[in-house]
Write a structure and sequence with these properties.
binds zinc ion; three-stranded antiparallel sheet; single chain; 10 strands; 1 helix; 136 residues; mainly beta; glutathione-dependent formaldehyde- activating enzyme (gfa); 35% strand; seven-stranded mixed sheet
Length: 136
């Protein structure tokens, strides 16, 4: 596969993925809303090790012990998510998660669902007919 690149808003962080995402979803949880400064965050996942930083160093924050969020320390762009929580049957923790919209070509991502719609803002109206999960 051709390597796909992405990075943060200011360009200090660049990364590549070496496989296509196996999963993607829009997360409406309050933590993603706050971390992004947006209404929801579209996450994509590649196989573990297939997300590589090629420029700069991702800064991390661990507000909750089991969740590490990665971002650019210069411009603040949310880039990665790492959870130690295994959700039964969901393969939740495996793989490398990254913010789909930070790809140079985000259109390659195919979101499969909306998760944490229990936190969805009332001014966001969903019309894409994707499955919605109250939590995850
Ligand atoms: Zn940046
Ligand atoms: Zn979330």
């Amino acid at each position: 596969m051709e390597k796909l690149n992405g990075g943060c808003y200011c360009g200090a962080i660049r990364y590549q993925i070496t496989s296509l995402p196996t999963w993607a979803a829009h997360c409406h949880c309050r933590s993603c809303q706050m971390a992004l400064g947006g209404a929801f965050l579209t996450w994509a996942k590649v196989a573990a090790g297939d997300f590589e930083v090629t420029k700069g160093k991702i800064k991390t924050i661990q507000k909750t012990p089991s969740i590490t969020r990665g971002f650019c320390g210069d411009c603040g762009t949310t880039l990665t998510y790492d959870s130690k929580t295994e959700v039964e049957g969901q393969d939740f923790g495996a793989g490398d998660w990254f913010a789909a919209s930070t790809l140079d070509d985000p259109s390659i991502v195919k979101p499969m669902s909306h998760v944490f719609v229990s936190h969805q803002q009332p001014w966001i109206k969903l019309a894409d007919n994707l499955p919605t999960l109250s939590e995850f």
